Amino acid sequence: MAVSESTRAVVVSGGTGALGRAVVSRFLAAGDRVVVPWIVKRELEELEKAEADALRAGRLALIEADVAEESGAGRIVEAAGPVQVLVNGVGGYAGGKPVHETELELWDRMYRINLRTAVALTRAVVPAMLGRGGGSIANISSRAALDRPAGLGAYSAAKAAVLALSEIVQKEVGDRRVRVNTIIPTTIDTPANRAAMPNADFSQWTPPAKIAEVVYWLSSDAGATVRGALVPV
Questions:
Q1: What topology does CATH give the domain 9-232?
Q2: What percent helix, strand, coil does the chain show, rounded to 5?
Q3: How far is 143 from 187, CA to CA, in rounded Å?
Q4: How many whole angstroms separate alpha carbon 179 and alpha carbon 66?
Q5: What Cα–Cα distance (Å) separates residue 96 from each residue in 101, 102, 150?
Q6: Whole-angstrom Cα distance, residue 138 to residue 122?
Q7: CA distances from 31 to 62, 98, 172 (A)
Q8: For residue range 79-129, what is the model confidence (pLDDT) as tens digits?
Q9: What is the pTM of this model?
Q10: What is the spatial distance between Cα 91 and Cα 162, in angstroms, rounded to a whole number?
């Protein structure tokens, strides 16, 4: 049977960041129950303030966990119950050097943040999705995964690996009603990006709320026939 959109259990990794908060807000507005792992205290406090009503109502759970580890991913799934929607939104950006000058530590860090978190959570949620007859996974990649600009080798490679992960998981479980799609943002209009690029044309950037609408739609009954898509936003 198809997964109902009524009071779904949703996990949003990276849910305390600028894009993640918009995604969390969209699912809460639809009446879903959302679980968010957190590590950074300042970001946690911003989400707590923004979604105080949902916290009080018990529709938002904030769990301290490193979801790059199997134990952390398992803790999140245990708190959420059978997960019907997973948004792999944890991300980290760093670069500025050619590959031969980029420290291996940075390569490890980019893969851990951008890819390993998505792998760990996917491993944790897919068995229950298969048991319940379906689910939705949305992975957040980056335009850099396709453009592969010079100086961003570690970041671009990690985000490209997210594209490969999505394609492979869709092939493995798509025939059992688990749909996997990938969002490919260009520059997101966040305070951090504005501070880093003050002379840019902000009108060309995508607001987090617009991306959140796409993520939500892909998880909804309206988007149920979209599977294995790469969605530029």
A1: Rossmann fold (3.40.50)
A2: 55, 15, 30
A3: 8
A4: 25
A5: 10, 8, 8
A6: 10
A7: 17, 46, 30
A8: 999 999 999 999 988 878 999 999 999 999 999 999 999 999 999 999 999
A9: 0.93
A10: 11
